[in-house]
Write a structure and sequence with these properties.
This protein has about 240 residues and is an all-alpha fold. About 80% of the residues lie in helices and about 0% in strands.
């Protein structure tokens, strides 16, 4: 496990601390012909060797460099101006996945995936977390549709899909607080959201908007709390 942590640390230093913005821009422009790409990979390899402090583990450093280079090239050629954020997330997920695979292969870690996914606690956690993301957003949007059509909207004053992602994050926070037994944090989160919303509601002077937000918030928090209680009943 110590080696895995060191590999992740090397990735974070190499990708975020030792990669100037000018290198990123040059890689996007020149792609595979950019010298900065290969300097970037060399830095990753050196960081891995430095943190592992064992020249005998050079195959791990070499594998990290090759995997990192292939993933970076895939992102550079596949991303478009509108999909940069999406590809940034995918890029980091693939990097971490490749690090985990390389660590498991070279350290000969035995992972019993079949037993892992037969554990009801893990399956319940995965299922409930997934349920609280997009599925719950769709369910709540459907339940609130008859009221949302009557709410006056001003598209220029709201970020695209911001409400959906705020709802997902708040539900995941509430679920994690309940699953770890920190009920007081749920109250703090609800109070914080109320404070931020109070100014908007006071300025709008729209009773319909106030009622709509209140119903949506209670449904969102209630769903997350119920999911948290279900998870606690399963693990207990």
């Amino acid at each position: 496990m110590l080696i895995l942590i060191k590999l992740i640390l090397a990735h974070l230093i190499g990708d975020f601390l030792l990669q100037p913005t000018s290198w990123v821009k040059e890689k996007e422009q020149r792609k595979a012909t950019s010298p900065k790409l290969y300097f970037h990979l060399l830095i990753h390899g050196c960081l891995v060797l430095l943190l592992l402090w064992d020249l005998g583990l050079w195959p791990i450093a070499l594998s990290i460099c090759i995997a990192h280079g292939l993933i970076d090239l895939l992102k550079l050629y596949a991303q478009k101006p509108k999909t940069k954020t999406r590809w940034f997330v995918a890029d980091q997920v693939m990097h971490l996945g490749s690090i985990f695979i390389i660590w498991a292969v070279f350290t000969k870690v035995s992972l019993d995936w079949q037993s892992l996914f037969q554990d009801p606690t893990i399956l319940a956690l995965i299922t409930l977390v997934f349920f609280l993301t997009q599925p719950t957003s769709i369910i709540l949007s459907t339940l609130l549709r008859k009221w949302s059509d009557s709410i006056p909207t001003q598209p220029d004053q709201s970020l695209q899909d911001a409400g959906k992602y705020i709802g997902i994050l708040e539900r995941l926070f509430v679920f994690s607080f309940i699953a770890t037994g920190h009920w007081e944090a749920v109250g703090f989160l609800l109070a914080a959201k109320s404070v931020f919303r109070f100014g908007d509601l006071r300025k709008s002077k729209e009773r319909k908007l106030t009622e709509y937000i209140l119903i949506g918030t209670l449904l969102s928090f209630g769903t997350a709390m119920l999911s948290g209680l279900i998870f606690l009943s399963i693990i207990n």
